[in-house]
Each structure stands twice: as structure tokens, then as C-alpha cells.
Amino acid sequence: MADRYLRFTGTAPGRFLTRGLGLPQPAELHRWSPEHPALKGEVLHLTAGKPAPAPAAPPAAVVLDATHVRDVEGLADVHAALHPVVRSVAAGGRIVVLGAPLDPADHHQAAAQQALEGFTRSLGKEIGRGRTVNLVRLTDRAAAESTLRFLLSPKSAYVSGQVIEVGEGSGEGPGEGTVPADLDWDQPLSGRTALVTGAARGIGAAVAETLARDGARVVVLDVPQAEADARRLAERLGGEALALDITAADAGERIAAALPDGLDVLVHNAGITRDRRLVNMPVERWSSVLEVNLASVLRTTDALLSTGTLGEGGRIVATASIAGLAGNAGQTNYGASKAGVVGLVRSLAPRALAEHGVTVNAVAPGFIETKMTAAVPLLIREAGRRMNSLAQGGLPVDVAETTAWLAHPASGAVNGQVVRVCGQSLLGA
Ligand code: NAD
Pick the catalytic residue: 32, 334, 367, 405? Predict the structure, then answer.
């Protein structure tokens, strides 16, 4: 679905008119492409409380280390570090704040570190020009390499206002056990198999393409009615199609049987909406949404872990939604199912990592331009598109890039996270 307003504001008369009327000014986002694999310009590294080097040119990104900030005076150093440079960050640039986990034994440190969250989200809302601001809480910088590479790249164009926690590497030393020694950063998933549910179209198809770009052999799963599309996509990506309704009671076992050599990446993407206000919602609308979006996700996850199909180094990425975080009128069924996905991720993540070596995370898309959102009535659609810090809808590839980062072999220290891909939606922020 074309965003005509975005195109209009990209023209000189459009800019003049919309600025004069005080209307949203969405900036064109520069996403990853083979021709545009990295941000153009320098990354300026700052540390709160230390003198800042003067940037020679407007930086494409700023990384501010605020991990040691423990009190209100330390927060003044955050202001002092970013205040002079924030204006100079290039359009479409990035600000990444590095924070530390909250210390339960020190409420001054916890207050200061939590303050960074409010700071990050507020700066994200005011910075404009397609620039993003995110906070990474870490203890082990080396274990956060894949995360920092993602946030400092064009791949994260629609991810803003997020707080991402990165744990420690699984090895003895810093970062050890998180970055495989033979990792090819251009083809990180080479030699790995990924299965994407609901991948015949929309976001799932973009996820399949992006994981294939990163070297994975991709299994494109969708309902039998969508088999022709699934097959076409699988052929183009050099993968395979699997015609299967994910709500089948034995779907997990059938996937396991189709993948005797195991699975490395499982992306739960299949999802449906059947909107009605609760007063008008018949039980079928409730149960079909809960079945596809939640029950089948729980069942197949359990089956693929217990059969050992997903094992050491495995990755599960589930698909939530901002409707599951903020709630949405007419979507009690959908909101419940997507909040359920968040509960599944948070509860299972530590156990799946400890017992199976598998990470479990979720993406929570906001307004993404797909057939699902094209069906939304015009005015609500237009509001959904604009009500975020980037004043535009995301594209399926934005969710796909975020999924690819979570599926990355070097993302083993990212676990139990729910990362919104919503341009910092104003809903449920
Ligand atoms: P879509 O309707 O375009 O595609 C969904 C795909 O899932 C279809 O190919 C469909 O055939 C498949 N599917 C449905 N039921 C299935 C089943 N029982 N078994 C196997 N496959 C099944 O949807 P989309 O917009 O690409 O959304 C993908 C995911 O992202 C969904 O989980 C959705 O809830 C979530 N999401 C989307 C948006 C958005 O703005 N589009 C926002 C938040 C979350």
C-alpha cells in the first residue's frame, strides 16, 4: 500500500505546505541494500563524564557509554555529552545509549539507569529527520556486538525508542561463547536451516528472503491454500516449501519429521486477525485467533524443543504486536493472543537457554504496510501510519531485519527480549 503522503512531503511544495500547516514531516528512511550496506559517516564514541572529541564531520551515529552512571550527577554528564552534538547527527542517523542493568541493591544506581530509559524514549520522540535513539543495557560489551552492529546499521531504520538487554556470553571470558570463531558477518546463517511460518506472503515472506540473504536454507511454511505462493518463494530462495496448517495438533511433530537434520531458527510469524468488539465477538472469532497466534506457537515450540529438532545454538523468534502491549479496541482476541506470546517468551527464554542452548525472543511490529493493514479503514490506517516518532508505517523488511538480528549466531546473549518494530509508536510506549 503506497504511502502517498510520505511521497508528497518528499517534494518541495509538499514540504512547504505540510510545514506551514504543522503536519507530520516523515523523513525518507534509508534501509539496507547491497548498495547501501552501512550508514554513511563516522560513529562518534562518547563516554559520560569524559571530555568529548570534536567530530570532524557530522556523525552518522553517536554511541554514548553511560554504563557507569550511578546517580543524578552522572545523569548531568549524559546531558553534557549529548547536548552539544545531538543537532549535528546526520539525517537518518543513530544514537545508541549504553546502560547497565539496574542494581537491586543500590536504588541510586537503579534510579539513574532507569532514568536513561525515559531519556532515550523522550529523545527518540523529539529528534526527527529519520534519526533513531535506542538504549542497550549490557554487562559484557563483546556479547553485544551483533546488537550494536544492527542498531548502527541501515537495517534498524524503523526501530526506535527501544530498550534492549544483552546478557553475558556463555564462555569464561568477556564475549566468549557468543561470537562463533568462524563467523562470516556477511553470511551469518550459512549452513543453518530456518523455518518461517506464514511465509507465503507479507512479513513472513520478507523474513524468509532476509534469512536467505544471510545464508540460511529456508523452509517456507504456510497453509495448503497458499502452497503455490510458498513454493514459488521457496524456489526463488533455493529453499523448500512446507504446506501445513500450523494449528494441526501434530504440526510440531510433522515439522520435526520434515527436518531430520534439525532446525536452527524457528520464526513463528503466522498470524490472523478477526476483529470485533467483545460484545459482538462470537466464540469462533475468539478461538481461531487464539489457536493460530498463541496455542499453535506454544505447541510447536514445545514439540520442536522436546524432540531436539531445535538444539544448541538454536533461535526462536516469535511475533507479538504492539496491540498485545498497548491493547486495541476491537482486538481483545488478538491483543490477548499477542500478549500471550510475550508471556511465553519471558517465561521460556531462561529455561530454553539453560536446558537447550536456544534463545527465545519476540518482535512486536507496529503499523507495517501489508495486506493485513491495507484492510484497515482509511482514517484509522492514516492515524496508525503517522502516530509514531518516524511519522510513517514500517515495511515488512523492517520486521525481517530485526528477526535476522535475533536469529544471528552472535546474538546468543540476547534472550527473552520483546523488541518493537514500530518507529516508536505512540501507542503503549
Ligand atoms: P498476512 O495476513 O499478510 O500473512 C500471514 C500469513 O500467515 C499468510 O500467508 C497466511 O496464509 C499465514 N497463516 C495464517 N494462518 C495460518 C496457519 N494456521 N498455518 C500456517 N500459516 C498460516 O499477515 P502479516 O501482516 O504479514 O503479519 C505477519 C505476522 O505479523 C502476524 O503474526 C501478525 O499478527 C503480525 N503483525 C503484523 C502487523 C502488521 O502491521 N501487518 C502488526 C503487528 C503484528
Answer: 334
pTM above threshold 0.85:
yes
Centre of ligand 1 from the C-alpha of residue 170, in Å = 34
* Highest averaged pLDDT of the listed ranges 1-5, 19-23, 178-182, 397-401: 397-401
Q: Is the CB of 222 under 6 A from ligand 1?
A: yes
Atom of ligand 1 nearest to the CA of 365: 43
β-pair type (217-222, 61-65) = unpaired
Residue 243 near ligand 1, beta carbon < 6 Å: no
What's the CA angle centered on 45, arms 399 and 149, to 5 degrees?
25
Grid cell for residue 146: 551483533
Atom of ligand 1 nearest to the CA of 201: 9
Average pLDDT, the chain: 94
Protein residue with least CA distance to atom 40, ligand 1? 368
CATH assignment of 31-166, given 3.40.50.720, 1.10.10.10, 3.10.180.10, 3.90.230.10? Answer: 3.40.50.720
Predicted local confidence at residue 429, as pLDDT = 46
Contact 365, 341 (CB under 8 A): no
State how far the Cα of 349 lies from the Cα of 359, in Å rounded to an integer: 6
Q: From ligand 1's centre to the CA of 82, what distance in Å?
A: 40
Q: What is the architecture of the domain spanning 193-421?
A: 3-Layer(aba) Sandwich (3.40)
Q: Do the domains 193-421 and 31-166 match in fold?
A: yes
Q: Is the CB of 267 under 6 A from ligand 1?
A: no
Q: How far is CA 130 from CA 27, 33, 70, 211, 391, in A?
A: 5, 17, 31, 25, 9
Protein residue with its CA nearest to atom 16 in ligand 1: 270
Ligand 1 in reach of 319 Cβ (< 6 A)? yes
pLDDT single digits (tens) 7-17? 777 777 766 66
Is 5 one of the annotated active-site residues of the chain? Answer: no
Residues 370-396 as b or e (16 or more Cβ within 10 Å = b): beebeebeeeebeebbbbbbbbbbbbb
| Domain boundaries, given as residue ranges, for the chain | 31-166, 193-421
Stretch among 39-53, 237-251, 254-268 having the lowest mean pLDDT: 39-53
Is the distance from the beta carbon of residue 265 to the nearest atom of ligand 1 less than 6 Å?
no
Strand, coil or helix: 420: strand
